[in-house]
Predict the structure.
Amino acid sequence: MSTYKQAIEANERLINENGTTFAGINPEYAARMKLQNRFQTGLEIAKYTAGIMRQDMADYDADSAQYTQSLGCWHGFIAQQKMIAVKKHHGTTSKRYLYLSGWMIAALRSEFGPLPDQSMHEKTSVPKLIEELYTFLRQADARELRHLFKELDAARAAGNNAKAAEVQHHIDNFETHVVPIIADIDAGFGNEEATYLLAKQMIEAGACAIQIENQVSDEKQCGHQDGKVTVPHSDFLAKIRAVRYAFLELGVDDGVIVARTDSLGAGLTKQIAVTNEPGDIGDQYNAYLDCEELTPGQMNNGDVVIHRGGSLVRPKRLPSGLFQFKEGTGEDRCVLDCITSLQNGADLIWIETEKPHVGQIGNMVNRIREVVPDAKLVYNNSPSFNWTLSFRQQAYDAMVEAGDDVSKYNRDELMDVKYDTSDLAIRADQMIQNFQRDGAAQAGIFHHLITLPTYHTAALSTDNLAKGYFGEEGMLAYVKGVQRKEIREGLACVKHQDMAGSNIGDDHKEYFSGDAALKAAGEDNTMNQFG
């Protein structure tokens, strides 16, 4: 028996048991409302999506072509439209996630107004946005199911049993818009207890995967800015454990932790690691400090010194009090960070790089996999990269290495439009197109994300509309550039009243008030102009 029919029959039994108390309750309407609201809490979502993500990780281990992807969303509506588009164009939400960027919360959702990505925004805005994203995805479920229910009613009214059976099959096998989210907790917003408390709220809001980075919480910088300061491994591992405890406390035993290292671009540390014996993790961290050997007579007032290998060494200390790492150690520190995190509770790693280069990423992942064979990477396909220039330069370098003639190209000016139709530019675009596939196959990248794409799409589309609407095009700028495209490309959002829930509300009024319901979707509703 179909799950839809089972739900109706269960309601019929409940109504009969309650007699007149439930008079006027339609068992099928109640079943519809329940199906339209499958997830009652964010914690249910976290448990459901954690299972999906774990299966996806196993699928990737078996076949690297089974990588996953996401786009960063800064509003529930953006997330909703993204997943509606995914189902429309690709038929399934499988292997597609949401990403919640701390950068976009800081820039777009803080009560302070736009802020840089330095953990200055309210930390409670993170779980609030997670809750908002899933509220909109659940509403997308309700809307799509509502259309299926109306198709079922129409098929029944027409006596078309075959069509009714087909629609009921779609209802029984409905794929939800609710997908996993990887949520950014920055550097934990304080000490490990603060990290634990925030992680709990994020999980309760629906997060099955939490990303945390190894920067100092109160010195936190965007991964693509200068001035990043890392913490010793023991400090970072304490926060990883705090997140795991939060998952376990809430019953999300398979919750996912993504450990991000910023060491490739971070040349500073705020503190010297505690070490108890040569070669322990603290000693390995301190080994990368830029130091000079001393004799007792060379020490100055207030100097900090380390006893290492039988000698006294003085770490280079900046006027800010920060200590400096040796130049050229970033990659080695990244590898150590990742291995240490994976051996101490993290499930996935994230290496913040300065450019998108499969070879560079793959070299680090291969070193990590020598110790942790199933290491998997989450990679930021960042808008902070100049993708066009980077890949044209990579194509140029490959041509030079192959002995090809590059005399007609200037490597430093490859962004110039004059190169757009050149063989080099075409080759570079193919490399960009294949970057995610190549990265998954050659660099251990399980999940590809773009942190803030919808920040840029909102800016670009608004710029295009404003340019025309306030210029000569006037209303044609909207009609031609927006509405006509919505209609012809089949965007459900062209019926914005329906997208906002007006028709769902009408259904509820009918359930509650019957023929007396005052509904909005009558013949005078202008949305009818869109068919």
